[in-house]
Amino acid sequence: MLKAKEVSLHYAHPVLKEVNFNIGNGEIVGIVGRSGAGKTSLLKILSGLESPSSGEVTFEGKRLKGPHEKLIPGHDEIRLVNQDFKLDIYHTVEENIRESILHLPYHERDQLVEKLLQLMQLMLIRDHKAHLISGGEQQRLAIARALATEPKVLLLDEPFAHLDAHLKNRINQYLHVLQKKKQMSIVLVSHYGAELLSMVDKIYFLKNGKLIPKGSPKKVYYNVKLLSEARFFGPVNSIKIKDKTIRFRPDEFEIAADTASDSILVEYVGSAFNGMVYENFFRTSENEALTLYAQNELKNVRAIKIYRKHT
Question: Model's pTM, two decimal places?
Fold first, then answer.
């Protein structure tokens, strides 16, 4: 559906280098990378709001026109929500949503506006002018405006930066409903990869201007060969065994007898409950720090074995 082919972008220095990207109907894709890696620039190119230095973007088989080729930059079927928000700041919250769906019949418009106001927890400020609400509220309003139009492709740049966990979960559920019912394709971009694991079908990593496909969330999470990338998705344990560095996630272990030949001797340091599991902190005999997840405190554990969960 939306495809980038050999897309590069140069300013004073290269930002994107021969990027290839493809998202099909109804897919949800995550792009992860450090701040300043070029994620926002890539989304602007994919939405038709910025022209690449070379390469091209196609949408439904046709070349996507850049901002210098259209009177109004962008594409009606592609919506980008980034940190600029692009709100009508002197209109109310409700007016901002309503004016984006003026083509709908009155009763459908009213129903959708009410639904999005409730989803984004904007009911109490529906009559407030957009420039008088907080940054987090403006972000929620920008997402609501984009969702109202139900585009074929929705591009979200750091969409959960100002949202609490409860609201993020509600929006995640709604996005999956749109994905299934409307076959909407969604691209989520973040510098914090862990928040995308439960939301996307596949993950790309943007590094040094290159976009690298990484695979399914489970595959990405348990592939800890590159520590710099693995840490974007949560804690990683790293220890040395016979001069070989071994890395594993906090849930990739099983309790072992301390007399077993292949066991790793550990000393319990403490625990913290994070709401889902206990984070148990240990030290190895070489004074290496370990974090192990479990449903209880592991005060009496003296040895473990690594239990791989790669697919």
Answer: 0.90
